[in-house]
Amino acid sequence: MRDLSEIVKAYDIRGVVGDELDADVVRDVGGAFARFVGGPAVVVGHDMRDSSPWLVEAFTEGVVAQGVDVVHLGLASTDMLYFASGSLALPGAMFTASHNPARYNGIKLCRAGASPVGQDSGLSEIKELVAHGVPEFLGERGSVRQRDMLTEYAAFLRDLVDLSGSRPLTVVVDAGNGMAGHTVPEVFSGVPVEVVPLYFELDGSFPNHEANPLDPANLVDLQAKVREVGADAGVAFDGDADRCFVVDADGEPVSPSAITALVAVRELAKEPGATVIHNLITSKAVPEIVAERGGKPVRTRVGHSFIKQTMASTGAIFGGEHSAHYYFREFWRADSGMLAALHVLAALGGQQEPLARLMTPYTRYASSGEVNSTVDDPAGRMKAVREFFADRSGARVDDLDGLTVELADGAWFNLRPSNTEPLLRLNVEAGDAAAVDALRDEVLGVVRS
């Protein structure tokens, strides 16, 4: 029986190409996915990694061998694949390892309408089918056809966020040699935004920096370029362009929680009283602002499958995560960094203040960002932290996702185990930076003892 435990993650399939992920495995994944969704066709896109085309070829062989057709998008961002899945009402497969280094690749799967396929929504079944052997299909093979949907995708996004009335803006975009270099020129065609491109050349070896804007080291070039050209803002995308990070005219990063609050306010203006989803490590400013604007904030666990499921059950108009994933009901509840970026630029261009001042009302607290600790016994360290804070006066504890402790002064932290590594992930928020540092150090003193 084939062991896939190393490559089947919580939300996707991902591994080192040629070692953990090869043509045989991917062919069987294609066959298993075809049987899981049942046809009539699967839409497939891929990023710019050198391994992506031949992995797509293997996956396609597995799908058509089960009598299911394949629609090839070719080069695509992940949210473009979601657009295709939603607009064509077909299940989809996106070949990408997102922000991981060049030696990795992977597959993000979805049902028709961009509905997620994760461990609890089909991925475990696909894993078992591959592990035990995909049955041979004796009927007619499926067909393969090509369809370029970049223009349709770009037009759809521009219809959702109208920039036609914006004042002229200059924006530096760091594509990180990833898929934003393919999609940004088309999306921003005809809008009053001058794009200053940075690393738009598609190159899966990532010669300039990792395509992971969550790491501050990967924002340095963007920040410098924004200041050099006097841009109104800067936007950085990860490798598959489903996440965006924003910096202001001074090159200072804008918190993804503040972006969540800004977009939530814009969406609530279209549908007063609507529900907005936020995960439990976003700033508490997000639910405060949503409630103040008449919306209904709903808190969820971290992870796109939980966000999307909760959006579906509540009818939420929008959802945001502090990791810079932004989800839109009008985009089939899928995440789109590009759509979030358009919202930010529309808000900026619709008034005269600089971005830093525009974002001030949405930035109420100081935060630590995510602090990772490698530990031998995550469960034991979590228990030790719980016991350490158990007798703290006024402390409130919940277990929605890991351990969240809110203190009497309003400061709080969340400590979660990684899904894939022996790590504990800590996020802290408090009224000011000194209070954040003090609480962070207190928790880490227990975690790392």
UniProtKB/TrEMBL annotation:
Q: Which CDD domains match?
A: PMM_PGM
Q: Which organism is it from?
A: Allosaccharopolyspora coralli
> What sequence ranges are listed for the domain Alpha-D-phosphohexomutase alpha/beta/alpha?
7-130, 152-251, 259-364
Q: Which family does the similarity line name?
A: Belongs to the phosphohexose mutase family.
This protein's record includes keyword Iron = no
Q: Give any Pfam family that matches.
A: PGM_PMM_III
Q: Which domain of life is it from?
A: Bacteria
Q: Where does the Alpha-D-phosphohexomutase C-terminal domain lie?
A: 370-444
The question of whether Magnesium is a record keyword is answered with yes
Q: Name one GO molecular function term.
A: metal ion binding
What does the UniProt keyword field contain? Isomerase, Magnesium, Metal-binding, Phosphoprotein
Its name, as the record gives it, is Phosphomannomutase/phosphoglucomutase
